[in-house]
Amino acid sequence: MKKALFSLILLSSTFAAQAQQWIDIPQEAKPYTRWWWLGSAVDEKGLDYTLSEYAKAGIGGVEITPIYGVNGNEKNELKYLSPEWMKMLKYTEEKGEKLGVETNMATGTGWPFGGPNVPLSQAACKAIFQEYSLANIGKAKVLDISCTDTKQKQAPTLSRVMLCSPDHETDDITELARRTKDGKGYELPLKDLRIAAHDKIIVLYVGRTQQMVKRAAPGGEGFVIDHFDKEAVRSYLATFETAFNSSRTPRPHTFFNDSYEVYGADWTPSLLEEFNKRRGYCLEDVFDLFLMPDAERTDQAKRVLSDYRETMGELLLENFTTQWTEWAHKGGAITRNQAHGSPDNLIDLYAEVDIPEAQLFRHFDVEICFLGSTHRRKEIHKFRDFHLAHRAFPYFALAMQTRHRLDVRGWRKPCVLPRFLLFSTGCRMARLAILRFGRYDSKQPSVEGFTCIQPVHPALPVVPAMGTTRQRLSRLSAILRHDIRTAKSHRFVRHSFHG
Questions:
Q1: pTM of model > 0.85
Q2: How far is the first Cα of the chain from the last one, in angstroms, to the nearest whole number?
């Protein structure tokens, strides 16, 4: 009897021990971290140490983004995509493969895409509209229609000159425009025009925003590309093709595109032709409707504006997102994309890449109700420890930033994670759980910014990157409804902090 009882106890202990053992964590379930190379001042010794520490902590992959350097350390900086820089990337890939740490990298330095190899003719594009009321011209025989945007480094391209009547009849008179005597602008002779007092002339110049890459690393400074121009994107990617091929460096596992922060880019040189081909009418024929103030916009004008936005979205999807993804696939890599802020249907843009990544595009001042108790603040204290923080849930919800510094002792300015903003996905998108690790000092109570990782149910369905937009939206809606039903079953949101 005693022998049987002893065997039963031993068997129960064995089962208990087995039940407490962790299963092997697959690569796709491990957290990945952003890795900013300040000035690309890296060497093999430092890379070896850092990757080893990441591996010990359980990090499954790194996302390399070179940014600006540190004052006083310029002598150690490497020029982006130079042979020396590619050598360090290759070493990172080889060392990471041995340690089980996957290598990802941004397709550029800082953000958005751009750099020294982007000529102004392929930089982010903007429309410059100028309107002239003929009632104010008087008896003038020549109208000066030179571009009034003095910030343009090069003379913008004159695209269209349209004569518009109050009843929305238009006439293309671009061919009548001629150069001014100094050759710097354009003028329009009026003597041969049949014009009425209430007519107006709308002039379109195609200019450039001249936006530069933000937080660019040494060797990465330059203009932001025209994301809507297929040739501009192709030329930009060719620079990377040359760098990888000439150095015989393997492509990283994933190429990353940071948030779309291309400001004022509302045009591309081929837009009018593409608009006519896709929408079936000429946008220049309805410039007066297109430029109508919001307060006065008629139903027809709203439809014109909608067609313009749809055309721009299609160009972004086809000429940038699709081309970039196909280029990555040809080299054996995949893509991860932050599409928020883009002028297109975000579901389409996210569906076109291999791994969609979400992030709020602006700041919010909101409250986190459940962080009010002492118990919750103590839980947040735990996550200041690196070894606890790195064990993130393998699901992504939302990355949020706050303009206020958070005080873990008392939440000086509470911030909130509204349930309706959650964008949760299944394990196929586990690599979205990217933590931003900063420098932790146990004596420093304040930390800056945060990334929220929200666990979701393991059985959550996945949104396949296929089917029509309506089908993808339907699947996404089902996922969001599932999140709302299961949100109350989770105790807290895990945070990691980054400066």
A1: no
A2: 64
